[in-house]
Automatic annotation (TrEMBL):
Its cofactor is Mg(2+). The gene is ptsP. It comes from Alcanivorax dieselolei (strain DSM 16502 / CGMCC 1.3690 / MCCC 1A00001 / B-5) (Alloalcanivorax dieselolei). Gene3D superfamilies: 3.30.450.40, Phosphoenolpyruvate-binding domains, Phosphohistidine domain, PtsI, HPr-binding domain. SUPFAM superfamilies: Enzyme I of the PEP:sugar phosphotransferase system HPr-binding (sub)domain, GAF domain-like, Phosphoenolpyruvate/pyruvate domain, Phosphohistidine domain. GO terms for biological process: phosphoenolpyruvate-dependent sugar phosphotransferase system. This is phosphoenolpyruvate--protein phosphotransferase. It is found in: Cytoplasm. The keyword Amino-acid biosynthesis does not apply. Belongs to the PEP-utilizing enzyme family. One of its GO terms (cellular component) is cytoplasm.
Amino acid sequence: MLDTLRRIVQEVNNAPDIRSALDLMAQRVRDAMGTEVCSIYLRDNDRERYVLMASEGLKREAVGRVSLGLSEGLVGQVGQREEPINLEDAFAHPKFHYLAETGEDPFHAFLGVPVMHHGEVLGVLVVQQRDARRFDQSEEAFLVTISAQLSAVIAHAHASGILFEQLETRKRQASMYDGQPGSSGAAIGIAKLLFPAADLSAVPDREAEDISAEIARLDDALVRVRKEIRDLAERAKASLGVEEQALFDVYLRMLDRHALPAEVVAKIREGHWAQGALRIVVDAHVHNFEMMDDPYLRERAADVRDLGRRVLAQLQSYNRREQEFPDHCILLGEDISAPMLMELPQERIAGIVTTRGSRNSHMAIVARAMSIPTVVGVANLPLKKLDGKELIVDGFRGRVVANATPELKHQFEELIAEEQSLLEGLEKLRDLPAETEDGVSVQLQVNTGLMTDINRSLERGAQGVGLYRSEIPFMIRDRFPSEEEQRVLYREQLQAFAPLPVTMRTLDVGGDKSLSYFPIEEDNPFLGWRGIRVTLDHPEIFIVQVRAMLKAAAGLNNLRIMLPMITNVFEAEEAQHLIHRAWLEVREENVDVEMPPVGVMIEVPATIYQARALAQRVDFLSVGTNDLTQYLLAVDRNNRQVSDLYNSFHPSVLHALLHVVEQAHAEGKPVSVCGEMAGDPASALLLMAMGFDALSMNASNLLRVKAAVRQVNMGFLRRLLNEVLAMDNGEVITAYMDLQLTKVGLGDLIRHRAPAAA
Ligand code: PEP
Ligand code: MG
């Protein structure tokens, strides 16, 4: 059974389009179960009906035409109950709805299972049989399993809007894809897919711009792969037997001009670029081999795949060199890492869309720092199909639109212009204090890491740096920067902001921040070797970094050092001891620098209850709400699947924050927030009411937060805080804050209007 399942799933996944995938599903399931009918009904959300989309056994003409209301018939029942219905005689069931057009008269036995994806019913898979009999448990289990496995294919097509668009009953519409807001703002541009190297399945369809050039590229790549294989064969001579060596000849024969390459050339002549043509040909061969019953021949699929990968790697080494980014491009990718983003031409990037990740991943944080509208976690985006197409990125609501109607595009153009004028309007606040109407002020600082952050921050009147993410410059190199290289970098930051304080966090790698030259392989990296845990194990790295910071601060004395991922007082003490040692060393080298204030980040839940003990030992505390929320709620900050649970307004997070402020102040120590919460006007106001001394955020949000602070008074904020602290539900708190702040005229600052779905 397992083998049959695997085979069906593989075949369906390899189908060229969704309609053939559905037809295949129906055929294969019917054959595997030996039933007379297998049909697939899919839910058309716009029409609120289940449409018969494929059937083996019912009348062909009915496909695409027949549909049932959401609570109509047995199909509607399966959908409503979200569980299988197994009937010996469907006709006898009160919910049975006879569909004359399908010709289902003779079929009595009925088994329907829902097609579920992420808790949503996408459709119903039905098998029927003439004889009145109950399907047995193993048949039911088989249908449930296959439905679960195939649901992703259906979800994908569903989301892309292509499922129903060819039906006569539907008019063509814009395709909307839902994700999460990663960085607010809207953008319109041409999609550019960033796909992982040497992965055939990731290669998008693109048209060949110059057919002979593509053929020449292929020829060139083939020459190199043939040489690679001959070299391999030569090296393997001594260690392999005659039989294994013969394999290399097979490889070379496959690469003969008249074999695989001839098919690829034919595809290029049809208009595909070389990489796409290669993918199509290799996929077809792999598919044919995989379908063979002979296990030896089945294994050959792996050989073809391997050859395909080798040729692709050579083709890509050529294309990488000439990779171009058009103006106003929208980057698309499964996962775009923060360092990858930093290497690209920033001025050309209008928007970013990824299928993985969530709004708290570091890429999204960097995108916000760069003010690039971003949508993350758009699970069902057909990446390859959208490459080169015009897209609208709606970073306010977390949506992506393709094939936008002219009216919708116009609405977005207006929105972009409005947003621009709102930001321009905020610029006049640059030199005004962040002070409530009744004169209470809070320090608004910035989070930095990129070189471009400096100007952006100064332009917006930041009162210093509350978090300099020192790992960012480490991430874009291919080795650890030397002490002198670090000193130069840090000096630039310190000098730009002097005499305002600059809080430099020591290297915070691990989790989702990796250095290519210092790989950390762990099953559970967010609970593993991260931040201070790494640097205390590597004092040679820590001391060099601290020495560079101290030297950079010579004569300026505006440095503060902050320690990430502290779990206990011992780590803080040990780090303080190392910092002191580094300070004595540089003083001995005649560097004129004062011992800087040292603080710790509160981001591990254990430190909430040790805030006072820590405050006794260090000079300041700063709460990293991004990690604190993730650890307190046990919700991976990068996991789209659980992103709805990631809510910094969860009462536990709010009470923890209040406790930390009280403990720090009881010791007379300042406390700030440097997580993303600080940059959101609604939460920033609550943090201010709690008594946080400083809020550190992306420069892009600073003026928005300042505008909000200047439009309220402390009486109102304290009342609001007391009200939400008495609530026990994060969602309710979010909605309540929204309502209250809108009432006092902050709607524009806290919420972003965007055109409703077309
Ligand atoms: C945090 O965790 O809130 C924080 C500021 O650090 P980072 O986002 O870099 O982990
Ligand atoms: Mg953190």
